[in-house]
Amino acid sequence: MLKYFTKRLVALVLIITAISIGSFYMIHLLPGDLATVILGSGNTPENKKKLFAQLGLDKGLVHQYLTWMSHVLRGDLGKSYITNESINTSIAKALPIDLEMIVVSQIVAFAAAIPLAMKAAKKPNGLFDRISNGVTFGLLSVPSFIIVVYLVLIIAIKWQVPGTGPASFTRFPEWSWLFSDTGTFFTTLKDNLMSLLIPSLTLSIGSFVVYFRVLRSDLIATLQEEYITMARSKGLSRRRIMWRHAFRPSSVALLGTAGINIGGLIAGGFVVQYLLSIPGLGSLLIASITLQDYLVIQSTVFVVAVAVIVINFAVDFITTLVDPRIARD
Amino acid sequence: MSQEINSTNQNPAGDLLVVENLTTTFQTARGALPAVGGVSFRLGANEILGVVGESGSGKTVLSRTIMGLQPRTNVEVGGSVLLDGHQIVGATDEDLRDIWGTKVAMIFQDPMTSLNPVTKIGKQIGESLQVRLGMNKAEAKARVIELLTLVGIPSPEERYDAYPTQLSGGMRQRVMIAIALACNPTLLLADEPTTGLDVTIQAQILNLLDELQLKMKMSVILVTHDLGVVATRTDRIIVMYAGRIVEMGTTKEVFRNHKMPYTRALLESTPRVSNPSHTRLQTIPGRPPNLLKLTEGCAFAPRCSRATEKCSQERPTLEPTGVDGHYFACWNPLEDQAAPVSIQTGTIKEIGEDNVRG
Amino acid sequence: MTNNEVVINAAESVVEQPEKKAPIGIFTWICVGWLAINVLVAVLAPLLPIPDPNEMISMPGMGMSFDHLMGTDDLGRDIFGRLAWGSRISLGVGIGSMAIAFGVGGPLGMLAAYRRGKMDVIMSSVMFTFLAFPSIIAIIAVLSFWTPRSLGKIIIVIGISSIPLVYRVMRAAALSAGSKEYVTAARVQGARDRRIIFRELLPNVAPTGLSFLLFGVATVIALEGVLAFLGLSIAPDIAPSWGNMINDARQSLNNVPQNWPLIIFPSAILCLFILALNFVGDRLRSYFDVTEVKL
């Protein structure tokens, strides 16, 4: 087990290094001219030279990369060339929004997928199974950008549910609602959750569909295993057999899917954020791309990629705790 | 030990299990499949019964139906199974939960697939102790370690935390036995308990079962395709073919005086050490019948060298030979006691006489 | 093993055997037909009597009528016409980029799986590192810098960014096919590598490849929609695409909420097309009994 994790950890470090090189060079491979972006009409060769010297861009790429990495390793992601704002601050402001969106949507998705998948798997090809299978297959074909459009149209525009529309998102981001002096704890919490409704629902529908389908088919297979008959023969209750003997082995597939899903979830979250103008990481990234704010793009991409990889690593870790067979392979 | 087949529903004292005209029919996409087609027998307390047949003869389905452990869907069970006064046929899982584990338990065929791969073996054994017998964690753990010792697992304290994949096949089967014995069942169903194991381990497991049967005063139904397995360890034998009993009697009688050609064929296809080397093993010609296309006649007729026209038209019923509860279903029973062709008397003696119980 | 034995063994082990190779079924054919209609319309759009997508033919916001099957949008353009022409962009992006991804990733994956050894290790570590990187971010970044945008550029960017995924899928499929006896047999008989890859390996990975290709096209069509929402696809006034039509509709619905056909038709067509692709891909996979390759 220890050996397995050491191996995985080494791979993790190597991949993160590769990602850092990737995010660094990707920016330099992109077409576009930084000098024009920053200096605008004042882009004379002389000014450009001065600017590059100031930003350290006159050095070789390897040197630039190492300088950047040495700062990153010390926890300093640098400053925007354009707004001069610390990237650490920008990310620290945006990240909690992504976290909250993802955590809430995943809780909702799991809470819905697990019991429904169990109900469907109890009677494969039964009425409930067929309906839920068909509905989720259909939903699988509805991209999240369409889901969010319809949710906005229906919930915010047609039903006029207060606090859900795009206008509410200015209240959404700040974690300061926890300490807010405007109103009591619960009214601010309610505000926060209401503005979370549409984005989280969008993300949770997408995740739910995938989790439901994976868990359902895995449960159906697991319930035919001989050890389930064995568990029946012990005289255990159906509920206990389902949770202890079928769900535990099946949750391995579920966890694996969740791990793979995380990357897509973050990206999907970006689009939702952009559409609803929620000031999360996605909006930060897209805004900095539009502004051609190189260092912000580079650092944000790096942070997001590292987050995806670390989450996947964590999922692997939990998976080996659930299923000890994996670590021994 | 021998009982007359009794068509009435009463349960004479001493009979733990009374099976009457039991049928198990699977609904498949290709039609109804009668895996068990009308089986009746009785089992006394402390008795060991062997159920023998090729794969596909319905013996596994029979053992599961006796326990009420058939799949929940697409299966129909008819007849009656009275286990210590409890009617199994028609009962739901919820009804049977009280007797599963405590009255009747099962050892499954393949310990690899029958143990939950993601749960420690100690937990799997202790689960029924906690859930069924209401022990607390510490009590259960102590009892599990006792059980592990009982089934001959070395250093049980360490093995308690092992996962099934960390154990050898023989060890896993011992764990299976420990699970089955956890709640002191009165009837133990062992479904091919040694099929997946090495020959040396097979003997160990069978000896262990023997020993435990005496120690714990259980009745045992030992299901196997291997006559060699049942020869020395059972009181009575049931031979099954195509979902029906074709011969039944004390182990001694079945080995010595079998009447049914199928029983003979099974015996001949069992390898023996005492045969001269390079003796050709007899095989049964043809293949097991398609249960979806059973005819009116004897199911074994197409493969039987003694078959006559009558055999393919009318199914023989179980008839007594008059000796010691020995029954057979055959229109042209074997007359001779000594085996004519390849079975030498000495060979029969070896597994057939001296070592036979009862 | 004969069918009889399968049935008997199924009963013996008391496990319900799921019906293998489910019949193709009417719904699959409906899906295939729907896909075919869309492809035909996309290919033949200039020849068909379809209203010009960019011409402001009629009053804005008209409902459905015989003249305008799906009504008109807020600029008075015929929605049906725009949808028909839009399929050219959406399908073009989907099929074009998957052609690039499979054209490069497919042979590489099969080669890596066939040769194994050093070549596999080097290629796979490069590809898997790329896979760890959220590709949508790279796509957004490159497209936002690479102006002016064109259909070709979008296809190239999505195509290249999908290579690692296709590589992984095809490598996995070829690995499982390559370990089978007939490949070893061909190798023992001294067949040349190229021959083995094309004659023995390719037919065996083709079902996996084909079903993944359909999933891939479906994903890319959705991705084009995302890009349109971010303003990174073809601009709606240059040429309609399903994605930019939905985005247009979303924006104008804020002003004219009653014009539902505006959003329902393009989003329904897009979803139904993706549904048909997914369904046929799924059926293909189970028909050829391919073990699920994790996407």
What does this protein structure show overall?
The complex is a heterotrimer of chains A (329), B (358) and C (295). With 329 residues, chain A is mainly alpha-helical. Chain A is 77% helix and 0% strand. In chain A, helix 5 packs across helix 8 and helix 5 (87-122) packs antiparallel against helix 10 (238-276). Chain B has 358 residues and is α/β, with parallel strands linked by helices. Chain B has an 8-stranded mixed beta sheet with strand order 6-7-8-3-9-10-12-11. Chain B has a 4-stranded antiparallel beta sheet with strand order 2-1-4-5. The termini of chain B are close together. Chain C has 295 residues and is mostly helical. Chain C has a single domain (72-294), classed as MetI-like fold (Orthogonal Bundle), CATH 1.10.3720. The radius of gyration of chain C is 23 Å and the shape is elongated. Chains in contact: A-B, A-C, B-C. Chain A binds chain C through residues 15, 18-19, 22, 26-27, 30-32, 137-138, 140-143, 145-146, 149-150, 152-153, 157-158, 224, 229, 256, 260, 263, 266-267, 270-271, 274-275, 285-286, 289-290, 292, 297, 301, 304-305, 308-309, 312, and chain C through 14-16, 129-130, 132-134, 136-138, 140-142, 144-146, 218, 222, 225-226, 229-230, 246, 250, 253-254, 257, 263, 267, 270-272, 274-275, 278-279, 282, 294-295.
- What pattern of helices and strands is seen along the backbone of chain A? HHHHHHHHHHHHH
Tally the structural domains of chain A.
2
- Helix percent of chain A reads over 70%
Q: Span between N and C termini of chain C?
A: 33 Å
Strand content of chain C: under 5%
Cα distance, first to last residue of chain A?
Answer: 10 Å
The CATH architecture category of chain C equals Orthogonal Bundle
The chain pair forming the largest interface, with residue counts per chain, is: A-C, 46 and 40 residues
Number of domains of chain C: 1
Share of helical residues of chain C? 55-70%
CATH superfamily of chain C: MetI-like
* CATH top-level class of chain C: Mainly Alpha
Structural category of chain A is: mainly alpha
Low-confidence stretches of chain A: 169-181
Number of strands of chain C: 0
Strand runs of chain A, count: 0
- Weakly predicted, low-confidence segments of chain C: 1-20, 290-295
- The succession of helices and strands of chain C, N to C, reads HHHHHHHHHH
Mass-distribution shape of chain C: elongated
DSSP summary: helix tally of chain A:
13
Portion in beta strands of chain A: under 5%
